Amino acid sequence: MKGTPLRIIDSHFHLCDYEGFDRIAIAAGHVNTEENLRESYKKFHYVYGIVMSNKTLEPSAHVYPDYLSYCIGLDSAYSNEHIEESLPLIEENLKRKQCCGIKLYPGYNHYYVSDSRYDPVYELARKYKKPVAIHTGLTATTNALLKYSHPLTLDEAAVKFPDVQFVMCHIGNPFLQDAIAVLEKNHNVAVDLSGLLEGRIYDMNAFLKSQKGYINMLRDWLCYLNRYDSVMFGTDWPLANLGEYVTFVKAFIPEHYWPDVFFNNANRIYKLGLH
After folding, report:
1. How many angstroms separate the CA atoms of 120 and 221, rounded?
2. In the chain, where are the structural domains located?
3. How many angstroms separate the CA atoms of 201 and 235, rounded?
4. pLDDT tens for residues 27-40?
5. Which residues pair with 105 in a beta bridge?
6. HEC assignment per residue over 78-144
7. The pairing of beta strand 8-13 with beta strand 189-192
8. I need a surface site. Which of 2, 135, 171, 246 has the fewest CB within 10 A?
9. Each residue of 240-266: pLDDT tens digit?
10. H or E, element range at 69
11. Sign (positive/negative) of CA torsion 49, 55, 58, 60?
12. CB of 95 within 8 A of CB of 128?
């Protein structure tokens, strides 16, 4: 129906009481609290969100309101040597309906996602038919290593586990050409568009004009790929302003594909069951 607001699923954001996130949230024009998130979601027609967790693996720590699901995250708090002992807790999370996947942070953990020690993690994802989201591209800290977060590293894992659904977070930005190659080759890899902006954009028209080359590059590579059924909207909140991020993504996604990119794809890929 004409005039009906576009429904939005935020397929990638963080909800963590971390001091650094508090400062980033203020710079983006909001507060790093669930209450503020809920208000912003309502204001900008976000109907659901997926938390990329940075917390403990203990299931009891992952209690979220009913408009959120989460991916259980193995961030830099978990060393590669302790993956085996973490498997029971990972599986305990995956058994929960509200847990819709696994999140890996290879650049921060200094490992390649094709490393065989992560095979049992992918086996669990396959068993429970839940996606594995992987941080790719730039990192937020200088001690992280880009060689581990480069999107090309996802290719080997995708080939090794063809029946596991992978999600390339942040579209591998700024390594877009390589990211698109991995996506074109591997149809078990989807992508989210989170983390491409940080902070406030006070004059969006001026910003889009000044970043015309970047916007055109995003638009052209996604058009070349022509797999809009595998592209998901995400924000990386609290890094980004929720209203401005929608406007930004609309600038390089053809309007015809907005319902899929902003809602349908995440609903299907993460098996959220929303109607």
Report:
1. 33
2. 8-269
3. 14
4. 999 999 999 999 99
5. none
6. CCHHHHHHHHHHHHHHHCCCCEEEEEECHHHHCCCCCCHHHHHHHHHHHHHCCCEEEECCCCCCCCC
7. unpaired
8. 2
9. 999 999 999 999 999 999 999 999 999
10. strand 68-74
11. negative
12. yes
| Residues contacting residue 60 through CB under 8 Å, at least 6 positions apart | none
Do 23 and 239 touch, CB atoms closer than 8 A? no
Superfamily of domain 8-269: Metal-dependent hydrolases (3.20.20.140)
What does the block give as tokens for 194? 């989170």
Task: Please give the structure tokens belonging to residue 107.
Answer: 């650049």
Q: Using alpha carbons, select from 122, 173, 118, 115 the residue that is nearest to residue 146.
A: 173
CA angle, 109 then 110 then 114, to 5°: 100
Q: How far is CA 81 from CA 11, 68, 157, 203, in A?
A: 29, 31, 19, 47
Beta partners for residue 133, in sequence order: 103, 167
State whether residue 72 is helix, strand or coil.
strand
Under 8 Å between Cβ of 195 and 231:
no
